[in-house]
Write a structure and sequence with these properties.
The strands form three sheets. This protein has an eight-stranded parallel beta barrel with strand order 3-4-7-8-9-10-12-13, surrounded by five helices. Strands 5-6-11 form a three-stranded antiparallel β-sheet, with no helix packed on it. 48% of the residues are buried. It is 39% helix and 17% strand. It has one domain (3-328): Alpha-Beta Barrel (TIM Barrel). The chain is α/β, with parallel strands linked by helices and 332 residues long. It contains twelve helices and 13 strands. Bound molecules: flavin mononucleotide.
């Protein structure tokens, strides 16, 4: 019996999406890891070495699930091969008014307009410092995803990202510049290659030793994707994450629809297309995110050229068994 499908999911799905999310994070924060491990099984092993890091398996937790890095070791205990904390912004911010996250069960999808609600880089730095000092640090790679504070104008974006990067530098094994959330007004304009190159150069001037990646949107046209791939090569990025949520809601009916980024099964095909376009243009590592709901969709991303995969919506719908299922079906 899968305890997530049988017990946890019915309980969590009886609550509104954000309340369920907060309850899940609280439980993960409080539950002893030995209990998580004995409930969900040992961590699946399918080692991958990438950007100088050792991943016990290629299935990671996508950004947005653990925005404030509250449960880092629990993700390891649930079987993940890596975890990406954030998005964290320089300034603490409350995000958009609630409700701001919605499940569409018949589509195995979520629409969210959270708006980078997070405790801010200083508060997260303090938590990570305590965790490190106590020896309570995960043994899987930890990525840190940083975003632009809502109040900071785009012209000052580079220094806003730099504030978070400087503070969080000792704690991330890799860093992600998030310019692809649809829920911070104007953020996606930073996918313009000149704006993006300025952010990357600013961060690399602070520290060039940590792998730096950029997370892109699925709503870019093919030419823009190719230009970002070329820029990633010329600026010495370690890799790209494709993709964030989509603004294309054509899979939802008008009555269902609500503002925000769509994730889950309806995003699968487009996000794979973006990975294929990137792979035609660059040999840099690609982390796939978008509609990975089962082993077949994970395999599709790897076949399109991805090196690692990340789960968000698939994990909400299928729980930790999905990590094991994907790992078990990897080509040997
Ligand atoms: C409720 C919610 C919050 C999210 N927050 C973030 C975030 O803070 N930063 C980020 O880079 N992506 C965020 N994402 C996007 C996911 O990381 C992922 O890229 C996207 O949902 C596509 O993957 P999926 O189809 O597996 O969910 C969020 C997604 C959801 C559903």
């Amino acid at each position: 019996m899968d305890p997530y499908n049988a017990l946890l999911r019915p309980l969590l799905f009886s609550l509104p999406a954000e309340a369920a999310h907060n309850l899940a994070i609280l439980c993960l924060h409080l539950t002893p890891r030995a209990i998580l491990r004995s409930t969900f099984g040992p961590q699946p092993q399918a080692p991958v070495r990438l950007f100088g890091l050792d991943f016990p398996n290629p299935v990671g937790l996508a950004a947005g699930m653990d925005k404030n890095a509250r449960a880092l070791r629990s993700w390891e205990a649930l079987g993940f091969g890596f975890v990406e904390a954030g998005t964290i912004t320089a300034l603490a911010q409350p995000g958009n008014p609630k409700p701001r996250s919605f499940r569409f069960i018949e589509h195995r999808a979520i629409v969210n307009r959270m708006g980078f609600n997070n405790a801010g880089a200083s508060a997260v730095e303090a938590r990570l410092r305590r965790m490190k000092a106590s020896g309570n640090w995960p043994r899987i790679p930890v990525g840190i995803n940083i975003g632009k504070s809502k109040l900071t104008p785009n012209e000052q974006a580079a220094s806003d990202y730099a504030t978070s990067f400087r503070l969080l530098l000792p704690y991330g094994d890799y860093f992600v510049v998030n310019v692809s959330s649809p829920n911070t007004p104007g953020l996606r304009a930073l996918q313009d290659t000149a704006a993006l190159a300025e952010i990357i150069r600013t961060l690399k001037a602070i520290d060039a030793s940590k792998p730096l990646l950029v997370k892109i949107a699925p709503d870019l046209v093919q030419e823009d994707i190719r230009q970002i791939a070329a820029m990633a090569d010329s600026e010495g990025l370690a890799g790209l994450i494709a993709t964030n949520t989509t603004l294309d809601h054509t899979s939802l009916t008008k009555e269902q629809d609500t503002a925000g980024g769509l994730s889950g099964a309806p995003l699968r095909a487009r996000s794979t297309e973006v990975i294929s376009t990137l792979r035609e243009s660059t040999s840099l590592p690609i982390i796939a995110s978008g509609g990975i709901m089962d082993a077949a969709s994970a395999r599709e991303k790897l076949d399109a050229g991805a090196n690692l995969v990340q789960l968000y919506t698939g994990f909400v719908y299928h729980g930790p068994a999905l990590v094991r299922d994907i790992t078990a079906h990897l080509p040997r």
